[in-house]
Amino acid sequence: MTQTTTIDSNPALSSSNASGSSLVDWAIAQRKALLAGILALLVAVGSWSAYQSSKASTAKKAAAALFEAKKLGTESEAGLAALDKVSKDFVGSHAAWEALMLLGDHHSKKAPQADLSASWYEKADQAATDPRQKLLSRYNLAYARELQGKWDLAFTAIESAERLGLPIFKSELALTRGRLLERMGKTSEARQAYEAVAKDFADSEAARTADQWKALLPAPNSAEGKTQ
Questions:
Q1: Cβ contacts of residue 129 below 8 Å, gap of 6+?
Q2: What average pLDDT score do residues 189-214 get?
Q3: Which of 57, 58, 90, 141 is the most buried (most CB within 10 A)?
Q4: What is the pLDDT of residue 99?
């Protein structure tokens, strides 16, 4: 699920303040790390569940269909059609959810297709049967919304991911919350969010990043309410 994205090529994501470049760089790097970590876990869980479930036969068929779709690749129309078919033929399976995520990933590579990307991630969220699947779906949805420059919708997606209450990737989600608040021009709230990350996740990379981004914010009340 990791991929090379072009978020920094989208004019909508350019920032006028000094922290703009670091915000974008962090978004790209952190998303890659998050997706790789969760997907590895979910693939393992999905594979194990397929053999433990009373529906193992259907699950194995779904996994086989997904494997064949992946072989075609997302750069071909046949591959995209095959993934779409998996998502429709095996509703409720891990394979169907992963197929939807792959379709979303394909379109997230190009900013002009961010609308399609968001649509697929929304479908993946609806198709998710596991909280960890929902976490990844919503995190990706936030990424697609950010790619569109729709900070408020990205923030809503991050909030919904946080509400799942999972004990994984909490610092990454909290730091993303601060970044999006900054994007929306809510400087005071962004500052508070960065301070919370530094306090709640002390001595972590997220805490150090939060401190750096906080230091780059405009002085209190000097730029409140302006879009970053």
A1: 92, 94, 97
A2: 96
A3: 141
A4: 97
CA 8 – CA 28 distance, rounded (Å): 9
Q: Are residues 107 and 30 in the same domain?
A: yes
For residue 217, the enclosing domain spans: 169-228
- Regarding whether 112 and 63 lie in a shared domain, the answer is yes
Query: Model confidence over 147-160: pLDDT tens digits?
Result: 889 999 999 999 99
199 class by beta-carbon count within 10 Å (0-12 exposed, 13-18 middle, 19+ buried): exposed
pLDDT (0 to 100) of residue 13: 37
Question: Please, which pLDDT band fits residue 219 given cuts at 50, 70 and 90?
Answer: confident
Q: How many domains does the chain have?
A: 2
